[in-house]
Amino acid sequence: MRNLTLLTDLYQLTMLNGYFEKNIHEDIVVFDMFFRKNACDGGYTIVCGIDQVVEYIDNLHFSDEDLEYLKNLNLFSDKFLKFLKEFKFTGDIYAVEEGTIMFPNEPLITVKAPLYQAQLIETALLTIVNFQSLIATKASRVCFAAQGDPVFEFGLRRAQGPDAGIYGARAAVVGGCAGTANVLAGKMFDIPIIGTQAHSWVQKFDNELEAFQAYADVYPDKCLLLVDTYDVLNSGVPNAIKVFKNISEKGYKPMGIRLDSGDLAYLSKEAKKQLDNAGFSDISITASNDLDEYTITSLKAEGATINHGE
């Protein structure tokens, strides 16, 4: 993790300066981090981000560039800035384990440290743990609704920036997701990655069948086809079946199909009938497109034949 020492609110630093000037900065204090309301308006919260808190603490220091920036604000004395140059966290931090289920008003993290150290890290700890716990909790709720069917995280393109995409992917896995589409997150955190093709792949070729066959030519042992670019039941699934038969004759086992739009419950059941009739009853039907715990619960109630979600 990069140096995030200045990832704080300005008032933390002005308070530090005040503590220093009044010579109370070394007083030992204890801060508890807790929340008053569960994430997602639910009944519990999954704590996530503890590992990043440790990385943040290990990298805490004011660089020369940091100190020059603070000096140019004309808010701090040279004596105080000189003091910050030697900053090192010396306190103790007690935290629950990553992935722990917690409830309102229970301490997630307890910091015991000199006042100036405990005060400085407050903002960063909140932003690290609050965001990741929110995502982990949402993922947990979605996975619970899926009733054991694998759920994958595909949120990077809609995340609030790169860092949110990276740490959101990690948090989703902590919350129960089986993997992510985020390649960098997979590399950084050694978590499974998954992905096949988009509608743009299908549209690039003269027709859908050609697009499916081209993908199968490249990835015959990982052939999962997106069947809703044009018409799921009249072209998508029938064309997928043709390709599945081709690769099966060559000794490869098709993975499945993906539905990304429309009435997912109806389409999955009708697609399942076509696949079963063609002899492909054991391949997966994956669904995507803004699936949350409520949508998944509804799909289950409607008897959708979906066994993977994104």
What's the SSE pattern? HEEHHHEEEHEHEHHHEHEHEHE
Percentage of residues assigned to helices: 40-55%
In CATH, what is the homologous superfamily of the largest domain?
Answer: nicotinate phosphoribosyltransferase
Oligomer: single chain
Main sheet characteristics: 4 strands, parallel
- Topology, number of strands: 11
Q: What is the number of domains?
A: 3
| Mean pLDDT across all amino acids | 96
- Spatially, the strands of the biggest sheet line up as 8-9-10-11
CATH fold node name of the largest domain: nicotinate phosphoribosyltransferase
Low-confidence stretches: none
GO molecular function, one term: nicotinate phosphoribosyltransferase activity
Function: Catalyzes the first step in the biosynthesis of NAD from nicotinic acid, the ATP-dependent synthesis of beta-nicotinate D-ribonucleotide from nicotinate and 5-phospho-D-ribose 1-phosphate.
EC number: 6.3.4.21
Pathway: Cofactor biosynthesis; NAD(+) biosynthesis; nicotinate D-ribonucleotide from nicotinate: step 1/1
How do the strands and helices of this protein lay out in sequence?
Blueprint: H1 10-21, E1 28-33, E2 45-46, H2 50-58, H3 64-72, H4 78-85, E3 92-95, E4 101-102, E5 109-114, H5 115-145, E6 152-153, H6 162-174, E7 179-180, H7 183-189, H8 199-204, H9 208-218, E8 224-226, H10 232-249, E9 256-259, H11 264-277, E10 284-287, H12 293-301, E11 308-309
Parallel strand pairs: 6-7, 8-9, 9-10, 10-11
Antiparallel strand pairs: 1-5, 2-4, 3-5
Helix pairs in contact: 1-5, 2-5, 3-4, 5-6, 5-12, 6-7, 9-10, 10-11
